[in-house]
Amino acid sequence: MPHVENSVISFSVMMSSLRHHKIARMALLSRVGKLWVGIIIFLIIAINIIWNHKTQAAEVNAELLNESTRPHTIYMEKLSTGSSRLGIKNIFELAREYATKNLPNETYQLYPIPIRHSGSINLVFLWGISRAVPGEGRHYIPPHWMVKFDSNTGDLIMEKQVFPADFNQPVTPGQFIGTHYWKKDGYIKNRIELENRIYELLDRLLPYFSEENNFESSATIQSAALELKSIYNIISKQFMRPYYCAVGHEFSMWIDDHANVELPPFCPSS
Hints:
Number of helices: 5
Order of helices and strands: HHEEEEEEEHHH
Largest sheet: 7 strands, antiparallel
Helix content: 40-55%
Radius of gyration: 33 Å
Strand content: 15-25%
Structural class: alpha+beta
């Protein structure tokens, strides 16, 4: 009966093939199912990360706004220097001490802004709140506190709360105005040296600035003005310039005039 045997063998092979196809199909469906489960889990995680990021940003913004508008109890003992004139760096340190005693943590301090006052010079300092966000950088809100020191004696002259409108800025108190990216700005390796150089150059230039036009410009003054402007261009944060310029536009224009070189102005002409 060879014909019957061949039929039985063919039937067995067919059934075995069908079983293999069924197993393969089940395995494929199982893998596809696992793939879809993985995709759904990934989407859930991604949505959760995005939602948490937005929630954290909103919370940080609200906290910064609360810090910036909270009344501060100001304490600053009268500064008695015993000297006819302090260096700019000394006054900067006095301003930093003021901030440590009176202002919240994570308060940033801008560089001193010279303004003329009755034939002398006052130094204005602006402070605001910033907050470090992991993986992003340090977020800044507008300056909310202003203090003025006498550049000769270091005496505290004025202190007050300020708002973006005081600087002609169309933002609200507590609104983010910019972010300092650590990696992007990591190339400024000698920041401390540049900051110290700012104080030295201000010490050299401010006596002439206080005299307005009652002096003859020289190559030394022009060189100092050019160097100061170049350093400001390197280390000042672009989003902070409107605040520097609103207070110290006159000094910025004076530096531009005496730098005697075709560099873009630090502040736009008003």
